[in-house]
Design brief:
Layout lengths: L2 E5 L2 E4 L4 E8 L6 E8 L6 E6 L6 E3 L7 E6 L4 E6 L8 E9 L15 E2 L3 E6 L1
Parallel strand pairs: 2-11
Antiparallel strand pairs: 1-3, 3-8, 4-5, 4-9, 5-6, 7-8, 9-10, 9-11
């Protein structure tokens, strides 16, 4: 079993930055694809960014490109999401997820592809 705990959310003004962290425990996630999703009330949980084992393969949703950066530190069993130039529409609960993958270059972008989820961290961007 993998336990994921997100941190770093909070209230920030538009244009500001936040860095989310996702700490994994229970087993190493160095051979897991990792992803960040977000969800607002009444809507589905959507992928924001995803990363393969080594960090060389990444995916960004259109809304995140150029503003967000996903990274990972396998030695610390932690994944990060650096969010810059935040907008009010980025307000959501952000979730970290982990998926076993057979190959280093694979990234997962679908919610159903992930086996493990964190409890979420609230990000609120004020205008």
């Amino acid at each position: 079993q993998v336990q994921l705990v997100e941190s770093g959310g909070g209230l920030v003004q538009a244009g500001g930055s936040l860095r989310l962290s996702c700490a994994a425990s229970g087993r190493t996630v160095s051979n897991y694809a990792m992803g960040w999703f977000r969800q607002t009330p009444g809507k589905e949980r959507d992928v924001v960014a995803a990363i393969g084992w080594s960090g060389r393969s990444t995916y960004y949703a259109h809304s995140a490109k150029g503003r967000f950066t996903i990274s990972r530190d396998n030695a610390k069993n932690t994944v990060y999401l650096q969010m810059n130039s935040l907008k009010p529409e980025d307000t959501a609960v952000y979730y970290c997820a982990a998926a076993i993958t057979p190959f280093e270059v694979v990234v997962r972008t679908g919610e159903s592809e992930y086996e493990y989820w964190g409890q979420g961290t609230q990000v609120t961007v004020s205008s």
